[in-house]
Design a protein that fits this description.
alpha/beta, six-stranded mixed beta sheet, seven-stranded mixed beta sheet, 18 strands
C-alpha cells in the first residue's frame, strides 16, 4: 500500500504549492470529490521507486465552531486521520502565529507522526530566523522552498524514514485463480448492505486479513467454486464471528482498494443518479486500468420515469465506461445479484486475456483492408503488425510507419474490432502506436 502524507497548516503558507511540487504537476488531483470538500484534494507522487499519496487541505482552524471554517477543520481532521504522517507547514517569512500554536496543540494531542516544515525559507539562514518555530514542540524544523523545489526531496526521504518503509517493496506471489474485487462508491449508496448480503448468503468467509496500519481489510470468500478476495472500501469490521459493514467513507481507502483490485464493482444510487463523486471514482478506476462492472442499486425504489433518467445520466456522464456491463439491483431485497457475479468473472477473464501475435496481426490487417486510416500530411499511416504488450488491462502494441498521424477515431475503430474478436467485455483496452525508425535517415541527411 502507498504511504499517505497529509499537508496541514494555516491559510497561505504554501501547502498547495508543496502539493503540486510533490505530485510533479500543476493540477495533480486524482480524486476531488464534490460534496466532500473543495479544500481536500488527493494526488499521486513518486520518489525513486516509492509511490505515495499526498492530501492537500484547506486552512486549518482546529477550534472553529461555525461556518465554512468549521467545515474546513472537519476536512483537515479527516485528512489527518487517513494519513500515515502529517506534514505541518508554517510560513518561515511570516513567522509564528497563534493559529500555528493551536494546530500544533491539536497534532500533539492526537499523537500522529508529524514533520514540522518551514516553507518559503529560500535565502534564509537556518537556525536564526527559524528558531521561534521550536516553541511548537514538534521537534526539528525542516526548512524548504516549495516554489523553488529546495529541500522537498529531503523532506519526502525524512517522511519515509519516519515510517520505517522497506527499501524495496516486498514482492508477493498472488494466486491467479483468485479474483480481487473492490466494491467502490460514494457514501450511503448501499455498499455495506451489498457486502453484508454476500457474506450472509455465502457463509464461506474463512478469515479477515488485516493489511496495513490503515486498516485495509481483505475478506476471502467463495461462490460457485470461484475464489474471491473482497477488498474493503466500506469500513468492514469484525465483531466476534459476525462481520459488520459500517458505512465510513475514506477516499484513501477507496483509492488504495481500486489499485489493489483486479475488478472494481462501481455501485451507483438509482435514487440520486450519477453524481460528480461517481464520475471521479470511475475516472480513477479507468486511469488505473481496472476491469469494471456497473451496478445501479435501489432499483426497486424508483419509478419508470426515474429509471429512464438514471439510464440517461449514465450514458451522458459515464460514456468512457461503455465497455463495462451494467446491472440493476436491489442489495436490500437481494434482487439481480446473480448476473453481477457472471459479469465480474467475465471482466476478470477479459482483463487477463492472452492474445497471440498472429491473430492480432491478422485482425489488424483485416481492419486496415476494411477501412484505411486517414492520410496525415504527405503520408498515410501504414500499420504492419501488432502484438500484446501487457495484461490487466490488455495492451495492444501496433507497429508501422507514420503512426503518429493515426487519429483517436481510428484507434477507437481498431479497439472495437479487437474487443469483438476477443470478447473483451468489462475491461479497458489500451492501444499503443510505435513508429519504426528509418535506419538510413542519418545517411541520407549526410
Amino acid at each position: 500500500m502507498k504511504p499517505v502524507l497529509a499537508l496541514v497548516g494555516r491559510p497561505n503558507v504554501g501547502k498547495s504549492t508543496l502539493f503540486n511540487r510533490l505530485t510533479k504537476s500543476r493540477d495533480a488531483i486524482v480524486a476531488d470529490f464534490a460534496g466532500l470538500t473543495r479544500d481536500r484534494h488527493y494526488g499521486n507522487g513518486k520518489q525513486g521507486r516509492q509511490e505515495f499519496i499526498v492530501i492537500d487541505t484547506g486552512g486549518f482552524e482546529p477550534d472553529a465552531s461555525a461556518g465554512i471554517y468549521k467545515e474546513m477543520a472537519k476536512q483537515t481532521q479527516q485528512a489527518v486521520a487517513e494519513a500515515d504522517i502529517v506534514i505541518f507547514v508554517v510560513d518561515a517569512r511570516g513567522g509564528l502565529s497563534a493559529q500555528d500554536h493551536d494546530i500544533a496543540k491539536y497534532l500533539r494531542k492526537i499523537g500522529k507522526p508529524t514533520l514540522l516544515v518551514a516553507n518559503k525559507a529560500e535565502g534564509m539562514l537556518e537556525g536564526i530566523q527559524l528558531t521561534e518555530f521550536y516553541e511548537l514542540g514538534l521537534g526539528e524544523v525542516i526548512a524548504i522552498s516549495a516554489a523553488h523545489g529546495q529541500g522537498t526531496r529531503g523532506l519526502v526521504e525524512l517522511a519515509f524514514e519516519s515510517l520505517n518503509l522497506p527499501d524495496e517493496p516486498e514482492e508477493t506471489e498472488d494466486d491467479p485463480s483468485v479474483i480481487k474485487l473492490a466494491v467502490a462508491g460514494r457514501p450511503n449508496v448501499g455498499k455495506s448492505t451489498l457486502i453484508n448480503t454476500w457474506l450472509g448468503e455465502e457463509r464461506l468467509v474463512a478469515f479477515d486479513m488485516p493489511g496495513t496500519t490503515r486498516d485495509a481489510i481483505s475478506v476471502p470468500f467463495e461462490k460457485q467454486g470461484q475464489k474471491f478476495e473482497l477488498i474493503d472500501t466500506a469500513g468492514l469490521r469484525r465483531k466476534g464471528k459476525v462481520f459488520e459493514a459500517i458505512e465510513k467513507f475514506s477516499v484513501v481507502k477507496t483509492l488504495q482498494a481500486i489499485e489493489s483490485a483486479n475488478v472494481v464493482l462501481l455501485l451507483l444510487d438509482a435514487e440520486q443518479g450519477v453524481t460528480d463523486q461517481d464520475a471521479h471514482i470511475a475516472g480513477y478506476a479507468l486511469e488505473s486500468g481496472r476491469a469494471m462492472v456497473l451496478a445501479v442499486n435501489k432499483w426497486d425504489s424508483v419509478d419508470e420515469y426515474q429509471r429512464q433518467l438514471v439510464q440517461r445520466s449514465i450514458e451522458t456522464r459515464l460514456p468512457f465506461l461503455s465497455f463495462a456491463n451494467m446491472h440493476f439491483i436491489s442489495a436490500k431485497k437481494r434482487q439481480g445479484l446473480g448476473p453481477v457475479w457472471a459479469s465480474i468473472v467475465q471482466a476478470h477473464k477479459a482483463a487477463m486475456c492472452k492474445m497471440s501475435t498472429p491473430i492480432l496481426t491478422r485482425l489488424l490487417l483485416e481492419a486496415v483492408q476494411f477501412q484505411s486510416p486517414q492520410r496525415g500530411g504527405m503520408f498515410r499511416p501504414k500499420l504492419r503488425y501488432a502484438h500484446q504488450g501487457g495484461m490487466n488491462p490488455p495492451v495492444i502494441v501496433v507497429h508501422g510507419n507514420s503512426l503518429e498521424h493515426v487519429t483517436d477515431t481510428y484507434k477507437r475503430f481498431l479497439e472495437g474490432r479487437f474487443r469483438k474478436a476477443f470478447n473483451l467485455s468489462g475491461t479497458p483496452l489500451r492501444i499503443e502506436m510505435k513508429t519504426s525508425t528509418n535506419p538510413f535517415a542519418d545517411k541520407d541527411a549526410s
